[in-house]
Amino acid sequence: MSDTDDMQMVLTYGDVALASSLILIVLLVSWQLRLHLTKILLTAAIRTVVQLSFIGLILAWIFAREQWYEVLLILTIMTLIAGSAAKNRVKRSYKGLFTDTFIAVSTSAVFVTAIAILIILRVQPWYTPQFIIPILGLILGNSLTAISLTSNQLIESFHEQRWRIEMMLSLSARPFEAVHEPIRAAIINGMTPTLNSMLVVGIVSLPGMMTGQILAGADPTQAVRYQIVTMFLICVSSTLGCTINALLIYRRFFNKKHQFILP
């Protein structure tokens, strides 16, 4: 047995229970400072355990079978949930918002995941669940955050800057010219978390994927390479998602006569 094998650690249910008990510290802080977070903290903790335990059982079953249609079903469900989550984080809703967020999330995530699986990692077969499911999940999680931030700021800007936009249109500005600045600012806002994490990765923080691989006994150099690949995938997916989403929202705020409207 190698030294790496000796260092691998298997977590027991007792270890998980011990980690879960640390939530008591958070609850104590919430109670002392009257943050009124007790209910949501307990709900979040319970959902974390239940949801991850459930998906663990599902993934174990899918990994053992490796059927393409089952993997495709899981990927579809993950994408639908991501689109719904991105929509639910937007404060000002409108008819068609879910369609816009779903298109932005799915298009960017599926495109980037396909590149990762088929070109970069060259996984055979493409539906190998241990690769495609975690990669798509990682990209979806980051993309939906970026897209929801873009949606929130852009919709708020359109409402707040309505008169400025209409004034520019009255001065013969084209629709995209009138809203270019809000779109630019919204995409930058959506991209900021991703860019910030890239600036400090490896210096201030060790990302979850890399940390998990190292704790599982993987070669640190391989863990670093995988993390570099995933960081670039996340960056590209977030950029595409934010851009597509901003353009779809922009389309909703103009009618066929190029008049600015509030949907």
Mind explaining what this structure looks like?
- The protein is an all-alpha fold and 263 residues long.
- The protein has two domains: 1-65, no CATH class; 67-252, no CATH class.
- The protein has eleven helices and no strands.
- Helix 7 (129-160) crosses helix 9 and helix 9 runs antiparallel to helix 11 (220-252).
- One of its GO terms (cellular component) is plasma membrane.
List keywords for this structure.
263 residues, mainly alpha, 2 domains, transmembrane, transmembrane helix
Can you write the helix and strand succession as a string? HHHHHHHHHHH
- SS content category: mainly alpha
**Mean of pLDDT:** 89
Q: Which range best describes the helical content: under 10%, 10-25%, 25-40%, 40-55%, 55-70% or over 70%?
A: over 70%
- In angstroms, what is the radius of gyration? 22 Å
Low-pLDDT segments: none
Termini separation comes to: 65 Å
**Main β-sheet, in a few words?**
none
The rough form would be described as globular
| Overall number of strands | 0
Q: How do you describe this structure in short?
A:
Helix content is 78%, strand content 0%. It has helices spanning 3-7, 13-21, 23-32, 38-65, 68-88, 97-120, 129-160, 162-170, 175-200, 208-215, 220-252.
Secondary structure blueprint with pairings:
Blueprint lengths: L2 H5 L5 H9 L1 H10 L5 H28 L2 H21 L8 H24 L8 H32 L1 H9 L4 H26 L7 H8 L4 H33 L11
Helix pairs in contact: 3-4, 5-6, 5-7, 6-7, 6-11, 7-9, 7-11, 8-9, 9-11, 10-11
